[in-house]
Specification:
Oligomer: single chain
Helix content: under 10%
Distance between the termini: 157 Å
Shape: elongated
Largest sheet: 7 strands, antiparallel
Strand content: 35-45%
Number of helices: 4
Structural class: mainly beta
Length: 860
């Protein structure tokens, strides 16, 4: 037999057919693409199969031992051989998307295409794979190039790498038989293998997995036996059947339905469960959730007279069935009791517990002929008796009726009215009964009684005539406390209100008789009753108004407002009396009092008269008007101030005291301050009478420094009432001169006893003298020629007024000015102030005013 050598091995086409048939093209192993620099890719060694079954080997070791493996790399420049792992540069690529591909290198020669790359320098063809960067748009559609990765180059030359398009090789076969090693029994008599299962094609299309024995399992798991991510089955129908190919579990992905123990076409609904249990006496159902001791069972009867019956039961443990939504338990059933909103119902039906509010809604059809009924009935034989709540949609009423009375109570939802004994309530509460009683417990006396056409005689008020209507409130002991009557005229009047305390009438308001209040304090607009028997509180003025009934009567208003209490003449819109609550100022005729008592009048401001005799032995007497001002501050205080203004003669403050043993028309006192003035007069002061003082003088602003100093001079005192006349005179050539006195001099003074004091003016003294004329109307001065003389005339008053007012120079005490033992200035002689005359006078003032304690800061 002769064997002919062929230049092309015969096994190569067979191998390619084998690989193309069993391994659809792609990457078999390796060929990882890595970005190793900003513009550089590295392809690792590996193996791929192209669409024609050709193996593309990228190996780090060549065919000759010790030789490095090589591949052709071609992007934008002619291809060149590089060693594995191959490095590819993207530096000169334009912006865009590229595939990194692996293919067989082809050389076109005279005899056609030859696999491999022709090397001109070596004049030979090298069969090495070709790695290229090809724009996505220009990739040939013949699948001869295998995509390893995708590269995106941006405008600035930056490169990003992704696995988009990377293709992996697969396996193709009609059936795959999976075998496992076996060990004979007893071991180790034989070692072999047996079939564990088959993965093959169905004759009608599709894929099936089979195992040889019933005890074999089909398991999908991770190598380390832990759970893997998701298991997704894409199919229209998924069936799990028994040995007879009857569906046990079926899933229809189009209808989104799950069927248990039934074919998908036999039942409707997303969850389909064939039933046959749940009949009378059956405790288990077709669906059981839980354990054998604690479970929920659901049963549906599909046949017989009870077909369609569904039962849910909680079995084991507490045997409580709970329904809820989200995380809230809504309905609970246990021990023949149903709870809504509670897990522990204590009654056959219980709504809610103490943790939250509940509501119950009974709804029925809206047709006018329909009604909703909620009944509480007892059945005896075929007769039902009891109560019903009826929602009448025709009349829009809710009625409470009984088998004996229709209606007992009516609720009108359109008018918001309630009726008792009537279907047409005419008010918010309409009671169509003669008597209404309210009591706190059964058998007790009623606390509230309402009667129409009453003949009952209450304990409060006068006897009724009969036929009147009454409203009676009683206490727990049955004693009437409040009685309200209305009805026919007669004893008790047209209408009256009677309020009692322990059965005794305290308040009566009668529209046709006397009314009175005979209780504790009474408040109007307030509950603070500590101030008085009658307390009125209001946010506006006035609180009280009084109107006289006769013709021409005056309407008066009383009350507090704007921080004051006022009395107002409503007819003339004038405030007659005003008290400020901030400082206690009282205004008469003014609403802005600036003093403790501020009187504004177009006639006499204040007229005060004190009448009656003092008690025996009283010295102080009485004060018609007294004023007191005290303050710890340095501000000036005024006890009594008067102001009068008119075109005529005005009197600001007037004081008169008569018919007393000692009378004081006006008394002023000032003490306790740095400077004290019992009286201050701004203007001229006229005294028609004597002026007595302890000291006197004038006080003016200092002429040389009026802003910073005062100037004080004192009076010249004398036991006589002296008149003083002074002047200067220039003597004539004879050394004489005449001085003429005023024409009233003789009538005013004791002229015969008048004296003249002369003084020579100049550096040279000289003798001088004087002589009165006969009528004492003047006098002559005698001296030296052309000399200047000053004179001073002193004369005692002797007019009628001074003669009437003259007081003795020395006087025994106890005759008018003061009593023996009293002092005008006790402090000057070391005696206490209480021994002074002014202390007794001030005691009379203090009898009529409340003086504050020393140190109290009070503004008056």
């Amino acid at each position: 037999m002769m064997v002919t050598s062929s230049p092309y091995p015969t096994h190569v086409p067979l191998m390619r057919m084998h690989q193309a048939a069993l391994h659809p093209w792609g990457i078999a192993v390796g060929l990882q693409v890595t970005q190793t620099a900003p513009s550089e890719l590295t392809i690792a060694e590996g193996l791929a199969i192209d669409v024609e079954g050709r193996m593309l080997t990228v190996a780090a070791e060549g065919q000759t031992p010790g030789e490095s493996g090589q591949v052709f790399v071609h992007n934008t420049s002619p291809g060149s051989l590089v060693e594995v792992p191959a490095v590819v540069s993207t530096q000169d690529l334009a912006a865009g998307s590229y595939y990194v591909t692996l293919a067989v290198a082809i050389t076109v020669g005279p005899d056609g295409e030859v696999e491999g790359r022709y090397l001109f320098d070596e004049d030979r063809i090298v069969s090495t794979p070709l790695i290229q960067l090809q724009p996505q748009a220009s990739l040939p559609p013949d699948d001869t190039a295998i995509i390893l990765a995708t590269v995106v180059v941006s405008e600035d030359g930056a490169m990003s790498l992704s696995r988009t398009g990377r293709q992996l090789a697969r396996l193709a076969a009609g059936e795959v038989v999976v075998r496992r090693s076996t060990l004979g029994t007893p071991a180790p008599e034989s070692v072999g293998e047996m079939v564990s299962g088959r993965i093959g094609a169905l004759s009608g299309g599709g894929l099936q997995v089979t195992v040889p024995q019933a005890s074999d399992r089909v398991l999908m798991a991770r190598d380390d036996t832990t759970a893997f991510g998701d298991l997704t089955v894409r199919a229209q129908h998924v069936r799990v059947t028994d040995g007879a190919d009857q569906a046990v579990l079926a899933v229809d992905t189009e209808q989104k339905a799950l069927s248990i123990d039934a074919e998908l076409s036999s039942l409707g609904g997303p969850l389909r469960l064939a039933g046959g249990q749940g009949g009378e006496g059956v405790t288990e159902g077709d669906v059981r959730i839980g354990t054998s001791t604690h479970r929920l069972t659901i049963g549906v009867l599909t046949e017989g007279v009870e077909a369609g019956e569904v039962r849910l039961r909680a079995q084991g443990g507490m045997q409580r069935l709970i329904l809820g939504s989200d995380t809230t338990d809504v309905l609970s059933i246990q021990n023949n009791q149903v709870g809504i909103g509670t897990l522990s119902p204590e009654h056959t039906l219980q709504l809610g517990d103490t943790s939250a509010s509940v509501s119950l809604s009974l709804r029925g059809p809206a047709e006018a002929s329909m009604s909703s009924v909620f009944a509480f009935e007892e059945v005896e034989g075929t007769t039902a008796r009891g109560f019903q709540w009826v929602h009448d949609t025709a009349s829009r009423l809710l009625k409470i009726v009984s088998s004996e009375i229709d209606p007992i109570m009516t609720f009108d939802r359109m008018q918001g009215r309630v009726g008792i004994g009537t279907l047409t309530p005419g008010a918010g509460l309409d009671v169509a009964r003669n008597t209404l009683l309210i009591r706190d417990r059964a058998g007790a006396s009623p606390q509230v009684r309402v009667e129409s056409q009453s003949t009952l005689q209450p304990a409060l008020g006068p006897p009724i005539a009969g036929g009147e209507s009454q409203f009676i409130l009683s206490d727990a002991n049955g004693r009437d406390e409040i009685v309200l009557r209305s009805g026919r005229s007669g004893a008790g009047g047209q209408g009256s209100l009677h309020i009692g305390q322990e059965g005794v009438e305290r308040v009566r308001l009668d529209s046709n008789g006397d009314s009175y209040f005979n209780g504790g304090n009474l408040g109007i607009g307030t509950t603070n009753l500590e101030l008085a028997k009658l307390v009125i509180s209001s946010s506006g003025y006035p609180q009280i108004a009084v109107e006289t009934a006769e013709a021409g009567g005056v309407r008066w208003q009383f009350g507090g407002g704007s921080g004051a209490f006022a009395i107002r003449d409503a007819d003339k819109s004038a405030y007659r009396f005003w008290i400020e609550n901030t400082n206690g100022h009282v205004g008469i005729g003014t609403t802005t009092p600036t003093a403790a008592l501020h009187v504004v009048s177009n006639s006499r401001g204040i007229h005060s008269v004190v009448q009656g005799a003092d008690a025996p032995g009283s010295i102080a007497g009485r004060s018609a008007v007294s004023g007191f001002a005290s303050s710890d501050s340095r501000l000036g205080m005024t006890g009594v101030r008067g102001f009068a203004r008119s075109p005529g003669t005005n009197v600001g403050v007037s004081g008169q005291a008569v018919r007393g043993r000692v009378n004081h028309g006006i008394v002023g006192r000032a003490s306790g301050g740095e400077t004290n003035f019992a009286g201050v007069f701004h203007g001229d002061v006229r005294i028609n009478g004597s002026l007595s003082k302890s000291r006197g003088g004038f006080l003016i602003d200092h002429p040389l420094d009026p802003l910073n100093k005062l100037l004080r001079h004192n009076f010249v005192e004398s036991p006589e009432n002296l008149c003083l006349y002074r002047g200067k005179l220039l003597l004539d050539a004879n050394g004489t001169g005449e001085v003429t006195m005023p024409d009233y001099f003789a009538a005013l003074t004791k002229e015969e006893s008048a004296t003249v004091t002369l003084s020579a003016i100049g550096t040279t003294p000289f003798p001088i003298s004087y002589a009165w004329n006969e009528r004492h109307t003047g006098f002559s001065i005698f001296g030296v020629a052309h000399a200047e003389v000053s004179y001073l005339v002193l004369a005692d008053r002797d007019d009628p007024v001074i003669r009437r007012l003259t007081q003795p120079v020395e006087e025994e005490k106890g005759t008018g000015e003061c009593e023996r033992g009293q002092l005008l200035s006790p402090e000057a002689y070391g005696y206490p102030p209480e021994m002074g005359v002014s202390a007794e006078i001030e005691t009379g003032i203090e009898e009529h005013i409340d003086l504050p304690a020393p140190g109290d800061n009070q503004e008056s």
